[in-house]
Amino acid sequence: MTDGIYILANDVVYDQLIALLNSIEVHAGKNYLICILPYDNRLERVKEEVKRRSNVEIFADTSVIELWDNFVYDVWRTHPNAFKAWSEQGISGIYRMGTHRRFCAFDGQFDRFIYLDADTLVLNSLEYIFRQLDHNDFVVYDFQHKDPTHVYDVKSKQLFNVFSQARIDNEIFCSGMYATKKGLFNQEKQNYLLSKLTQGDAEVLYRNAPDQTILNYMVMRSCVSIWNFALHLSEDEITGCCVTSPHFEEKDNVLYDKQNRLTYLHYIGLSPKLFTRVCAGENIEFPYRNIFLHYRYLNQPQRRPQFKTKPKAYDAPPSFATRVLRKLGIRQEI
């Protein structure tokens, strides 16, 4: 049985990808095989990095990519207004289509795998997560269950006909990190899910988080055995995982939550452009910036940016000049 790690990436998240790969090597070890799922074809820098790492490759099975791309189109075709709403927002086709490429892992090379978004750092061993797959088919560690509004359309009258309140409270998860198994969603299962969506389930899907809503629906509608450490660990053991939590303490380039070491940190909600600008030398502060920079430049400390200007907050309000330009309709490059 082969265990491995999948990461969804392209050149846009290059700096974050390097930091994540380095953090995996430090805390999870060099023995895991890692496969990069292509968000799209912008992969020139990623390809160069892969050449330097013997345990990393890029997912290249175009037939599997096509299969899951087609499945995703079929899913969203069942939705009553997704394509119309996206079109009105100036979006051509499916919103953030590349995010759905994570589904290719179900037909990939690893029998069991952990999936990670590129805007993540691994800060602890992953062994206990893989071990839980001996007992469950889907394993997560997050607190998305506290906010279903980014998973399903909670205004849909159909929602509670599909899933009970108890299941929504206990089974939904963030699609940024999870562990699962190959082959869970074969063609027969895909056909079953599409049939249920066609019969009215589709209106519960949340179109502003397209991959997350589909994956949650796939897992829950198929009654896959799911385990969320956030719901099973004691209060003395549990940790957070998101950059939005301001109370984590840093020690030796690792983060702790009330003296418990985080398994991973998810820089959720921060634009990839922010990381690119900081790595280019802009002194922009954001939560847990130093720990990101540590892993980004772990093997190239001489290239770590030396900031010489006054820091500015990543969420600072726009300057007066920027507000004037916006009012005049003049677009600034970010």
Question: How many structural domains?
Answer: 1
Structural class designation: alpha/beta
Shape descriptor reads globular
Uncertain runs with pLDDT below 50, 5 residues or more? 328-334
Q: In percent, how helical is the residue content?
A: 25-40%
Number of E strands: 14
Strand order, main sheet: write it out.
3-2-1-4-7-6-8
Q: What is the C-alpha radius of gyration, as a whole number of Å?
A: 20 Å
Query: How much strand?
Result: 15-25%
The averaged pLDDT comes out at 94
* Topology pattern, helix = H, strand = E: EHEHEHHEEHEHHEHHEHEEEEHEHEH
**N- to C-terminal separation?**
45 Å
Oligomer designation: single chain
Main β-sheet, in a few words?
7 strands, mixed
Query: Helix segment count?
Result: 13
Provide an overview of this structure:
The protein is an alpha/beta fold and 334 residues long. It has one domain. The protein is 34% helix and 16% strand. It contains 13 helices and 14 strands. Strands 3-2-1-4-7-6-8 form a seven-stranded mixed sheet. A three-stranded antiparallel sheet has the order 9-10-11, with no helix packed on it. The radius of gyration is 20 Å and the shape is globular. 36% of the residues are buried. The C terminus is likely disordered.
